């Protein structure tokens, strides 16, 4: 495969229809979310604008956790959605819509057999290939997406080799990142056009592709750990759980671990 160089012109080549937002590509930034949030604060961003970097020096996930952002192999992008202001609960739902969007895009381009690990990760098997972080700004929600595309197993740090995978590892071939980015952008444009009217469509797809439903989980909140089983996805995209004591609850936050998956993932709106 030829060198996979990112630029706006290359990405636009793969778009299937005209769009209004700007696509800006950087070689290296600290965090694409930080760059786009700053543009929003300065009044220089509009819905549909997308910031992409070949490398991030301070990529982060939920709760400020570090997100590995190696040069030339991954997709690191942030997108300003045109859904308007959102409550914390709506931000969680928008993140779930984003997971559906990324899964659609990677399925379309890569034919990857992926599922959604509640609430914000895409997995192949039980290994993570994508994480999503949505943050609210005065201009609207900024959705940050990191996708492992062309990493090899040896390319991950030792501590991640049993946690993370990539589209290349799963599908056994390399991919053009620009093509995947174009597909993701078009799916994110659809969220702006569809939220919240097509909630039932996205909820159905999220439920059909949930990697967590039917799995044993543990959740930590306020220093207390409770174990139970995930039995479904609620209409608000919360996780329906039946605990060992028989109590049933819709989870919208806390430290959630899924038995057999990679280590704990903190989610929620606190």
Q: Which term fits the overall shape?
A: globular
CATH level-two architecture of the largest domain: 2-Layer Sandwich
Strand order of the largest sheet: 1-2-3-7-6-5-4
Provide the number of structural domains: 2
Q: What pattern of helices and strands is seen along the backbone? A: HEHEEHEEEEHHHEEEEEE
Record field, number of beta strands: 13
Description:
The protein has 270 residues and is α+β, with helices and mostly antiparallel strands. The protein contains 6 helices and 13 strands. The chain has helices spanning 8-13, 32-41, 88-110, 167-171, 177-194, 199-208; strands at residues 23-29, 50-56, 74-80, 115-117, 121-124, 127-137, 140-148, 216-221, 224-233, 239-243, 248-251, 254-258, 265-267. The strands form 2 sheets. A 7-stranded mixed β-sheet has the order 1-2-3-7-6-5-4, sandwiched between helices. A 6-stranded antiparallel β-sheet has the order 11-10-9-8-12-13. Helix 3 crosses helix 5 (177-194) and helix 3 crosses helix 6. The protein is globular and about 55 Å long. The N and C termini lie far apart (44 Å).
Features:
BirA Bifunctional Protein, domain 2, seven-stranded mixed sheet, alpha+beta, six-stranded antiparallel sheet, 6 helices, SH3 type barrels, 2 domains, 270 residues
């Amino acid at each position: 495969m030829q060198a996979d160089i990112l630029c706006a012109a290359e990405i636009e080549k793969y778009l299937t229809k005209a769009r209004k937002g700007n696509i800006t590509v950087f070689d290296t930034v600290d965090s694409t979310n930080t760059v786009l949030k700053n543009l929003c604060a300065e009044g220089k961003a509009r819905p549909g604008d997308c910031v992409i970097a070949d490398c991030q020096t301070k990529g982060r996930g939920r709760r400020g956790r570090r997100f590995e952002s190696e040069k030339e192999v991954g997709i690191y992008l942030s997108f300003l959605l045109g859904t308007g202001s959102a409550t914390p609960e709506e931000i969680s739902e928008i993140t779930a819509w984003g997971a559906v969007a990324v899964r659609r895009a990677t399925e379309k381009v890569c034919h990857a057999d992926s599922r959604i690990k509640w609430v914000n990760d895409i997995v192949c098997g039980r290994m993570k290939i994508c994480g999503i972080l949505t943050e609210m700004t005065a201009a609207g929600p900024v959705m940050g997406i990191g996708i492992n595309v062309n990493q090899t197993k040896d390319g991950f740090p030792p501590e991640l080799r049993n946690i993370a995978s990539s589209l290349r590892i799963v599908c056994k071939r390399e991919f053009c990142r620009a093509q995947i980015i174009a597909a993701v952008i078009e799916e994110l444009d659809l969220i702006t056009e569809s939220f919240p009217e097509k909630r039932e469509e996205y909820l159905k797809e999220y439920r059909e592709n949930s990697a967590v439903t039917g799995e044993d989980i543990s959740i930590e909140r306020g220093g207390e750990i409770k174990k139970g089983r995930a039995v479904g996805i609620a209409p608000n995209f919360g996780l329906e759980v039946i605990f060992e004591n028989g109590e049933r609850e819709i989870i919208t936050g806390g430290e959630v671990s899924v038995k057999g998956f990679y280590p704990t993932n903190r989610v929620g709106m606190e």
